[in-house]
Amino acid sequence: MLKTLQDLLQLQELDRRSIQLRKDLDDLPSRKDRTRLRLQDREEAFQKAEAAWKQESLEIKKIEMDIDEAKENIRRFRQQQFEVKTNEGYKTLLHEIEVASKKIRDLEDAELERMEKAEQFKEALTKARREVDEERIRVERECAEMDQRAAAVQQELAGIEADRAARSTGIDEQWMGRYNRIMKHVGDAAIVPVDHGTCGGCHMKLPPQVVHDTRRADAITACTFCGRMLYWRE
Ligand SMILES: [Zn+2]
């Protein structure tokens, strides 16, 4: 194989690694966003659980106020019983007291039911809180790991860049320029093997002459369709 082609192939190894690493870096923000979204989901679940519990507590307070009001009414009716002049009036008050007492019993039953429900909501809330805390730790750890990985990738990229610069100086400028142009244009590989008579880049069937010339390897050949440089792989 031609020395220039060999040098360019080694350069291409570096470039391909570099492309992959840069892609990793580009993906990082969206990967972090997705990770943080998991925490957001947990936080929303917690807020829902909290709202449910608060609502239930509010309902209990309302019932307690109604009970207090009914008790206050009974107290007033009893007071009136001392002042009432007629038997009929006394009876009416007695009836009012019975009605209010029955109302209190019903309210107390309802309160007990709601208190049991509130207890369950409270447990769900505690669980949701714990899940938020656990998820936060996980998410922070994963994001920190991603940052560490990004720093390592940056370092590797810097190394690759230095290596590339050093290797480039030994390569003919004209071929270097051609390689760079193709690489920029196709984005994946400027030099590809001939693969069963087809171009290893665009997979088009190559003219026999191009295949022949590539195999002889006394000059750099290119795919007639995509322009990628070709080499013969034994
Ligand atoms: Zn091609």
Characterise the protein shown here.
- This protein is mostly helical and 234 residues long.
- The protein folds into 2 domains: 3-171, Helix Hairpins (Orthogonal Bundle); 173-234, no CATH class.
- It is 79% helix and 5% strand.
- It contains 4 helices and 4 strands.
- The protein has helices at 3-83, 87-168, 173-186, 208-216; strands at 191-195, 198-199, 221-222, 229-231.
- Strands 2-1-4-3 form a 4-stranded mixed β-sheet.
- Strand 3 (221-222) and strand 4 form a beta hairpin.
- Helix 1 (3-83) packs antiparallel against helix 2 (87-168).
- The protein is rod-shaped.
- It starts with a helix and ends with a strand.
- The mean pLDDT is 95.
- Residues 199, 201-202, 204, 223, 225-226, 228 line the site of zinc ion.
Helices and strands in order:
Elements: H1 3-83, H2 87-168, H3 173-186, E1 191-195, E2 198-199, H4 208-216, E3 221-222, E4 229-231
Helix pairs in contact: 1-2
The structure holds zinc ion (ZN).
Largest sheet: 4 strands, mixed
Poorly predicted runs of 5 or more residues: none
Backbone structural class: mainly alpha
Ligand set? zinc ion
What does the overall shape look like? rod-shaped
Name the average pLDDT: 95
Q: What is the domain total for the residues?
A: 2
For the termini, the CA-CA separation is: 11 Å
CATH level-two architecture of the largest domain: Orthogonal Bundle
The CATH class designation of the largest domain is: Mainly Alpha
Strand content: 5-15%
Global Rg: 41 Å
Order of helices and strands: HHHEEHEE
